[in-house]
Amino acid sequence: MEIDILDDLESLKFEYGIPEDERYWLYLQGRYRGLMIKGCAHALFFCKLFCTLRELIRQGRRKLHPRSVSFDAASVEDDSLKVGVIGCGHLGKQLVNVLLRLVPIPAENLHISTRRPESLVEFQKLGVRCLYDNASVASVAKVLFLCCLPSQLPNICLKIQNKLEKTCIVYSFVSAIPLPRLKLLLNHTNILRPQYHFTEEFDNDWGDAKEITAVLQDLEVIRGTYPYSNVGGVILSIKWLEGVFYAAINACTAKNVYHSQVLQILNKLFLSAHLESCETDKVSCPKFQLTDFLNKNYINSLFHRRPFPWFDLTTVQLKETPFSQHLSATPALQNHLTLLYAQSFGITPSKEELSEVSAGSPQ
Fold this sequence. Notes:
alpha/beta; Rossmann fold; 2 domains; two-stranded antiparallel sheet; 17 helices; 8 strands; NAD(P)-bd_dom_sf; NADP-dependent oxidoreductase domain-containing protein 1; pyrroline-5-carboxylate reductase activity; oxidoreductase
């Protein structure tokens, strides 16, 4: 049981020195915490998803080359998810803890670049590589999290833009830098940036004074992080979820997986969790088709044994796509994705809860 030693010591609390007429602004403190918790939760879900994706791709390649033992052995190391984090302030440290403890990413696959690597002794003892070398971290990362200050980003981008592999997914928490600007700074198209909005009414249900790794094991808090949830006053733009889908397709394209196989992988990856209604009405259970991701004119010119085209994720997150229309028009798919998200945290929501989340979606 955790005890707050400041409970009975009002004069030592942060709020004590704030004039009464300015205490209204304290809600921003809770909003910041809610934003950080949601950001870490969605990054956790993304990394878990991509660990599974890389394994599904490897299994598919093994089936195509069953006798190539050396090929398979060599691919194991290459297919492990190596994660880089640039910037390890408060957000960066919380994110690293979440990646290590809850995904979990093996410590040897995690690389951190920060101006004060000597302050990260607890991570170094675990085997995490901590240094002050943005270019080195960017060069090895399959997923690169940007947790730096907006003022630092232009110089960082200048140092790393020639070190990024085309397939590296840059995941930016720097909300002050819009996607088109970030794409220009990095000269890179494989970028994800979750966008969050706030409602006027804010409920501070974000587990005060607890570490985020502990908070993300609280069932009520996790329910508040569902992609379609507006609980707590912090709302995720569903364009991020679209970006995750197209990022998964790009990962398959990079491995030259044919589009018919990609659809099978997407069905296994995103639709592995089934609703009760799928048992009684199998027709209602969604399955992905080419038309969900590509326009019909392009499909007509696509040969059977060809991968998907490479998608610019910044365009996906800024404009309407075929998948935008499909996702918004298919409540069953929204429910499946909510179920998948919940189960990645060890929760199985009821049918009523899923309906309530979809009905309350601001999208």
